[in-house]
């Protein structure tokens, strides 16, 4: 099975790349490195945000074929029942900002008849890896991460996602267009609230994410 691991930044999957000796393509750094030639998993560093993710994946998948794509990254959580550092499986992701404003009403791109904003994972973790079960969550993909109470409340009125990232729905979209089964795994680094870096657990989230991903690739890859 040939697997593509996709991350926004090298920092999010650095341990995994080194431990599994993954070949890496990074458009942001304009580099391509060759890892273990026996390894069937490769890594794509796509860049931060939905535009960078969609472009990088579209370009890469135009010339490369994979049996499974896995998006790895950290995320903020609206759901405080999810402890910081928890690794989760995102089963549904939405472009929450694509649409139009009609006074205080928001009209989605779907309702306008111009496209699709909600995407579901086309692969399930349990199909490939039965050793562990992860919390299944929904997510929002945004251009601006939320840090103000009014905007957080407005988003929840529309879609009530559990997680927030800047790439997830773009990853699902690009994989759907390319016909590649897509799985999204994230670790919660912070709660979505007024910006408070002292409360973030980025190190813990990255560590837990890479530890899980290493176990996953040891079975699937």
State the gist of this model:
By secondary structure, this protein is an alpha/beta fold.
Overview of the structural elements:
The structure is a single chain. The protein is α/β, with parallel strands linked by helices. It has one domain (3-220): Rossmann fold (3-Layer(aba) Sandwich), CATH 3.40.50.1580. Helix content is 32%, strand content 30%. It contains 7 helices and 12 strands. Strands 5-11-10-6-12 form a 5-stranded mixed barrel. Helix 2 packs parallel to helix 6. It is globular, with a radius of gyration of 17 Å. The mean pLDDT is 92.
What is the subunit organization of this protein?
single chain
How would you write the strand order of the largest sheet?
Answer: 5-11-10-6-12
The CATH topology is given as Rossmann fold
The beta-strand count equals 12
Distance between the termini: 6 Å
- The CATH superfamily turns out to be Nucleoside phosphorylase domain
The CATH architecture can be named as 3-Layer(aba) Sandwich
* Rg calculated over all Cα atoms: 17 Å
